[in-house]
Amino acid sequence: MPRGAYTPAVTIKSTRGRALVRSAVEAVPAAAAMLATDRIVAQFTDVPGNRWLTLGLGAAGLGCFVLRRRWPVAALWGLAAVLGALPAAGLPAAVAAYGVGRRVGGRVAGRVPCRPLVLGAAVVLPVLTALPDPRLGVVLSAVAVAGPGLVGTVTGQQDRLVVALRDRAEAAADASRLAERARIAAEMHDLIGHRLSLVSLYAGGLELALGKRAPELRDDAVRLRGATREALDELGGVLGVLGPLDGSPTDTTGLRADIGTLTEASASAGARARLEWTGPDLTDASPMVRRALHRVVREALTNAHRYAPGAAVTVHVNVDEHRVRVRVCNTRPTGAPAPAGTGRGLAGIRERVALLGGEVRTGATEDGGFAVRADLPLAASAPRPAGGAAVSESAQPRWLRPAAGVLGLAVVAGMLVLGLRYAYLPPAPAAREDAGSVRLGMTRAEVVSVVGVDSGAARAAAVGHAPPRPAGTSCLYPYPSAPSAPGRGGRLTLARYCFTDGRLTGIDFFDVPMEAG
């Protein structure tokens, strides 16, 4: 049964079930991290919020976090938008930004890298949704999006470099094996080929001699010469399998320039060959995919030269986001074709493409020509060694990467706490000389812009000394001004601004004693 022709429904359901269970398990620590961050934010400010809006934003952020594996870009953008209005989404946003930086690649319109655009938009969104407090948005964007995104980008580049080095090592091993096979082929050609050529030569002389002296034995000499010629042809086929390929794989193998060189070489040999390439170049594709494309095109062009002399040959290559498709077709030949070969060349490219998860189809065309079609996935991975032995990505222990992830989250959490403390830090007293401009009826944001945000230290010092708070109000205790009577036993003047329905309705000033130091 062909690869991919049938997938059991039980397998699909079990895979989806495991994905749902994994998402549900991941949602638990994400929700716990959001609740813990929300508690920390509550220590820095008493800014009242709509409880239902907060729950809605939290549910939206949690949903984006759960779906980040299926739609990483959309999930990151959603979390970044929620982050500006809900700082508690900091750790989930950091995880999503790291994943996008590590895995998202490709280019927009074949030119502009996709990853910087995605991360750049995610960095801007928290600043926009945190208005009118851009300082909070900048802190959240830097700590929870930009930093993890850059770390993920570096990690992803390291992973891709390891894969590229492994592919290059495999290519070097292939080249070494090909060189050894070429040496064996050369020795066989020099020894056995030379001996068979002598036998064929002697059989020809014997045939001429027997034609005059013993005609009844001439047929035996003819059969001997024919058998020798067949042996030479079979030896040529074996040497063709063992012999080297035309050119060893390089870093440019399979790129547009390389395929163009193959086509131009065919044209210079007398064939009417041309290349039609659609889509971006394969610079980011796996070297195995590029080598397979090179083999397919070269084998198809060789067959066209051999079996379709005088025909026009066209090489079509189409590259999209996920696959590369190649079609090499020739028109009806105008000259006498060579005798049919062994078919080992087409069988070889079929096997190579199948190992990468692709497919090769060959057959006659409607105009009497012949076409070779190959379909290759760009995300093809290296085939596993026989016996099920997997090639480890590195010699590092299995626990090292999860431990590094936990440590990274701890670092992000610490930086997030420090960043939030800085974002909610009230301005210095010198910056509040215009506190007298505060008037009743101002909004909370207008008052905060003049006197600063709520201070936990001022709120704690006001306990037992502040006047009774009016019912139905929420009050703001900004950073205290300088003590009115500095020194031992001095007193500290605190201010309290109370709001009803978001509007300033009361201003109180009171003194609290300072402890003797």
UniProtKB/TrEMBL annotation:
<dbReference type="InterPro" id="IPR003594">
    <property type="entry name" value="HATPase_dom"/>
</dbReference>
<dbReference type="InterPro" id="IPR036890">
    <property type="entry name" value="HATPase_C_sf"/>
</dbReference>
<dbReference type="InterPro" id="IPR011712">
    <property type="entry name" value="Sig_transdc_His_kin_sub3_dim/P"/>
</dbReference>
<keyword id="KW-0418">Kinase</keyword>
<keyword id="KW-0547">Nucleotide-binding</keyword>
<keyword id="KW-0067">ATP-binding</keyword>
<protein>
    <recommendedName>
        <fullName>histidine kinase</fullName>
        <ecNumber>2.7.13.3</ecNumber>
    </recommendedName>
</protein>
<feature type="domain" description="Histidine kinase/HSP90-like ATPase">
    <location>
        <begin position="288"/>
        <end position="380"/>
    </location>
</feature>
<dbReference type="Pfam" id="PF02518">
    <property type="entry name" value="HATPase_c"/>
</dbReference>
<dbReference type="GO" id="GO:0016020">
    <property type="term" value="C:membrane"/>
</dbReference>
<feature type="transmembrane region" description="Helical">
    <location>
        <begin position="403"/>
        <end position="424"/>
    </location>
</feature>
<feature type="transmembrane region" description="Helical">
    <location>
        <begin position="74"/>
        <end position="100"/>
    </location>
</feature>
<keyword id="KW-0812">Transmembrane</keyword>
<keyword id="KW-0808">Transferase</keyword>
<dbReference type="GO" id="GO:0046983">
    <property type="term" value="F:protein dimerization activity"/>
</dbReference>
<keyword id="KW-0902">Two-component regulatory system</keyword>
<keyword id="KW-0472">Membrane</keyword>
<dbReference type="GO" id="GO:0000155">
    <property type="term" value="F:phosphorelay sensor kinase activity"/>
</dbReference>
<keyword id="KW-1133">Transmembrane helix</keyword>
<dbReference type="GO" id="GO:0005524">
    <property type="term" value="F:ATP binding"/>
</dbReference>
<feature type="transmembrane region" description="Helical">
    <location>
        <begin position="52"/>
        <end position="68"/>
    </location>
</feature>
<dbReference type="Pfam" id="PF07730">
    <property type="entry name" value="HisKA_3"/>
</dbReference>
<dbReference type="InterPro" id="IPR050482">
    <property type="entry name" value="Sensor_HK_TwoCompSys"/>
</dbReference>
<keyword id="KW-0597">Phosphoprotein</keyword>
